Amino acid sequence: MQPSRLSLALETGALALPGEGRILVLRPRGGTDLGALPKDRVEAVQGFRPDHDALAARGYATAVAPGAGYGAAVVVVPRAKAEAKALVATAAAAVAPGGPIAVDGQKTDGVDSLLRDLRARVPLGPALAKGHGKIAVFANPGPAAFADWAGGAARRLPEGFVTRPAAFSADGIDPGSAALAAALPARLPARVLDLGAGWGYLASEVLRREGVEEVHLVEAEHDALEAARANIADPRARFHWADATRFAPGAPFGAVVMNPPFHAGRAADPGLGRAFIAAAARLLAPSGTLWMVANRHLPYERTLAELFREVVELPAPPAYKIHRASGPVAPPRARR
Asked: pTM here?
């Protein structure tokens, strides 16, 4: 296996770990190579449930939020720049003054831009390039140096909703979700499931419908779910930090609403949407209905036809497709 950028930084001395103290790793993916770090000292902070569980399965201590008093930190740069800056501010607040903070990321995730912004604030060590990415290290000047970056972690939209950078559509209500909300009927079943609920917009619209007694929000991104909790005070709401494709409730639902993700990192992956459709079919009652919006170019029709007895495409804005799929059936491999 080729050495990682983290290994390179340690081998060259660009990153010198203190002899003791915990090492904070912020937002590592499930498969991030952390082998160069002493495993018994690492605490991986990751709020995306599939990655969190994958890191825990590899034997790393995991959490959704950091503590304090770490000897060093590694920030794994995410796609959203506001989130990346907030992570740097988090590291500066958690690591002892003078402790090393490494910033490691792919060029496609904006690491060059983040390093430029860092260089304008702190003495930054040389950036080491490897594998289409870069890593650079600075000595922690303390949280005051990044106080304004920490403030960018949350945002309030004009409609009153709170969002977080890690959440889908953090800058505003997604047009596809708004189109789906407009297509929902005036009355819905008593138990409704919002798969991939994000910061709670669709669930808030479901709660406006007649007949609804429970809305279960399933969201893999912990920060997004916390935003949903802030946005929805209705006692009929139930919140689940879970991978939507593996969620296992105690009883089936009368309806599922969803605007499923279709990216893994920056790469389009329609397989994610198909997995959400399969989960919806599994979680619905035999007479239940799926209400789903997707970008028009995504090829979900075959999966819907295989897993539901009736599929209807409803009117939608030109960029989107809205499907109403009723009567889930067992997937072909499960049939006798």
From this structure: 0.90
